[in-house]
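Field log, afternoon session.

UNIT: design team B
ACTIVITY: writing a sequence onto a fixed backbone
BACKBONE:
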């Protein structure tokens, strides 16, 4: 039976890579988590409020929906974002993306989500690469996200980011 996972991304270069490469990568210390996601599982992509470098302006949002399209494998060419190296990953089949800097503000749904036992400390649960959602939580977040989704090809380019070209973004 397929499960749904919130995949948490807190780095703009990593988000750009995930969207444009249609792949997900995990750091070496999180490889067990990568292997918990199986082909057919659903992924809800979450960009943290720090993802764009201005957590006082930005809000953490669920921005996309995809299906895991392959089993997790060691990457032939590990990727590096900041100080972290990502060594394992899998392909994604995007079912839709919200336009750039749009999406579902997760904090607004926290009181309704069983995955967060204490809404006051929900952000503690977001300090991981992926978070499995109970079925009812997955249905709620997906229902909120669905009207915002656009076809991948219409929106993916908005997520492309080259650090040198955007030194002030």
């Amino acid at each position: 039976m397929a499960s749904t996972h919130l995949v948490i991304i807190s780095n703009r270069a990593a988000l750009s890579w995930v969207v444009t490469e249609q792949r997900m990568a995990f750091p070496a210390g999180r490889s067990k988590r990568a292997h918990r996601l199986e082909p057919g599982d659903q992924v809800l992509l979450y960009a943290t409020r720090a993802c764009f470098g201005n957590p006082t302006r930005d809000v953490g949002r669920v921005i996309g929906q995809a299906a895991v399209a392959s089993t997790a494998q060691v990457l032939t060419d590990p990727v590096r974002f900041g100080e972290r190296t990502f060594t394992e990953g899998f392909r994604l089949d995007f079912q839709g993306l919200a336009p750039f800097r749009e999406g579902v503000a997760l904090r607004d749904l926290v009181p309704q989500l069983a995955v967060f036992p204490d809404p006051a400390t929900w952000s503690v649960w977001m300090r991981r690469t992926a978070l499995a959602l109970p079925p009812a939580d997955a249905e709620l977040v997906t229902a909120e996200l669905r009207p915002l989704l656009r076809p991948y090809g219409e929106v993916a380019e908005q997520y492309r980011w080259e650090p040198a070209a955007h030194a002030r973004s």
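LOG NOTE: The domain at 4-159 is CATH 3.10.590.10 (ph1033 like fold).
NEXT ACTIVITY: expression trials, pending approval
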